[in-house]
Design goal:
31% helix, single chain, alpha+beta
């Protein structure tokens, strides 16, 4: 899905430990889905790295955001209403200005119970694209000749064949 560079995009994950199928998990989240109007909804069985059992439902959302160059301010302002609605502590929002993203987890006690009252256990936000997309390895825009030369030298040095020492 394509987003504009100033869009704040969020993935909200809901843990439903009592759900016995993805369909049941989505059905349980239907009222919240009707309220939040996500762009996409995904459901899957809980993975081994996720808290609890059951199923996880994930909403992909585009949040209203102020126009500003203040990355942290934009993320905090855009996230505040969603976090309040989901029962997550906005004060615990961990913002990474360089990567233009932020994440907040339900507290340890809530995580052990499957998340907040509505099942929310994590919200991940990013400016300009889906938080699940990998980070870009190169900066946006064209490299200068000097940057391209430095990158080429670094890559070449990584792939140089070095003689194997015999012992």
């Amino acid at each position: 899905m394509q987003f504009q560079p100033a869009d704040v995009v969020a993935r909200a994950s809901f843990r439903l430990p009592a759900a016995d199928s993805a369909e049941a998990a989505v059905r349980t989240c239907r009222p919240l889905q009707d309220e939040l109007r996500p762009l996409a909804v995904e459901a899957r069985a809980a993975g081994p790295d996720e808290p609890g059992e059951g199923f996880t439902v994930e909403f992909l959302l585009k949040l209203p955001a102020p126009q500003s160059d203040d990355v942290e301010g934009v993320l905090r302002t855009a996230a505040a209403p969603l976090l309040a609605r989901l029962g997550l502590d906005a004060g615990k929002l961990d913002v990474d200005v360089e990567d233009r993203d932020a994440i907040v987890w339900a507290g340890d006690e809530a995580l052990s119970k499957g998340g907040t009252a509505c099942g929310a256990y994590v919200v991940h936000l990013r400016i300009g694209r889906d938080p699940d997309e990998p980070h870009e390895l190169l900066p946006e825009g064209s490299l200068t000749d000097e940057e391209a030369r430095a990158l080429t030298e670094t890559l070449n040095s990584l792939f140089e064949q070095r003689p194997v020492e015999e012992h």
